[in-house]
């Protein structure tokens, strides 16, 4: 099977190199090596595609897709390269990199249209002088492609819901070689499906999104020591923040982490990432978090770009990393139990003996009502209750530690999921952008949503190219 695949990819590389001589990069060339270094999880850079193809517009992307479809050649798609799942944004066959699809422009006054090769920082650099913002990634280097196609959690999630809800138009290259536009008016079913349905329909070459005027907002990171009592207060504040009437301008991401050299007291640390969509210092809606004693406080009035630039740790292409995730109905005592058990298990696992510089982190995305319901393909239904998405994240350097890190993460994730299931709070859907291979992403959506997604895929990709030839979270 492998021989057949490599023979197919060899033939396709030669065909593509003849058709598009300037877009096909082969191993060893400086541009190939530069492209192949752009993975948040360095394990993905070790996969080394037989060629990296870098189309410069939608039609070229579609023609490349047609060749790959006709020759039944496996290929992967990569935008920013921030999805850590091994082999989901690269392939030993062919990698299509959206690097050159990097235009950004304002259209019709208040919309921004940008190519799929952009990272959020470039979009914010462009919008800042206009005093405009979009619901995008909270860290500068995250790619626009994977982020928006699987949903996207921005500083404005409480008001907008998944960031993809603000996309008004997708430009899509299909496996047939055609380029189509998907919006409310044209190809409406594809438009719906792309809002959360991932890589399963085509390669999105450009996104057009609504912007809003917000020259400055409030936000930043407050760092606190994660002793049990503090953790209890953090989780109560997080729970209160998604119940009942919420202030939709308020944002919180609760990050906890343990790095042995930094956490010598034995307690993990919290990085409480707070934001408020207005020039309001210490907003009342975030009082519960502001009352927690901070050892460092980076909150201030700032632009969206400045807040996205805050994340300087753990964003580079220099380390290895993994995600696992699960969701549950919010309950502060259960969250405290999960937190305590997670760090106990991580410390006992031997992961820090394997790589003394490793980090174990546990993050929560409070999926309030606008995220749990809404119009996207990953809405859980109009009446769906708010929930918490919990993300396990490890980061390490040594390549030889990768196997152990994945085994430890799998074992911990299984124990924590069981704990949540036993408590009766488990929600089967997991947000793909924070998930691992074994986590239930599309499987956890309502049956009628899954059927509708499969129907859209069958209509726009009748040969099943994006199911069979492209790695990533498939439809089920
Ligand atoms: C440091 C860090 C910070 C993060 N911050 C946030 C955050 O604030 N909010 C949040 O919601 N998530 C966040 N994430 C998760 C992030 O959204 C996902 O990793 C997301 O997939 C990254 O998008 P990308 O384009 O960089 O991904 P890639 O790794 O390039 O792609 C991810 C997946 O999408 C597919 N894909 C990418 N582009 C296209 C395209 N144009 N057409 C079709 N398929 C495509 C790929 O094939 C792959 O399967 C963060 C992750 C990290 C590591």
UniProtKB/TrEMBL annotation:
It comes from the Eukaryota. Transmembrane segments: none annotated. The keyword Transmembrane does not apply. It holds the Pfam family FAD_binding_4. Keywords: FAD, Flavoprotein, Oxidoreductase. The keyword Flavoprotein applies. Residues 45-214 form the FAD-binding PCMH-type domain. Belongs to the oxygen-dependent FAD-linked oxidoreductase family. PANTHER family: BINDING OXIDOREDUCTASE, PUTATIVE (AFU_ORTHOLOGUE AFUA_1G17690)-RELATED, FAD-BINDING PCMH-TYPE DOMAIN-CONTAINING PROTEIN. This is FAD-binding PCMH-type domain-containing protein. It comes from Paraconiothyrium brasiliense.
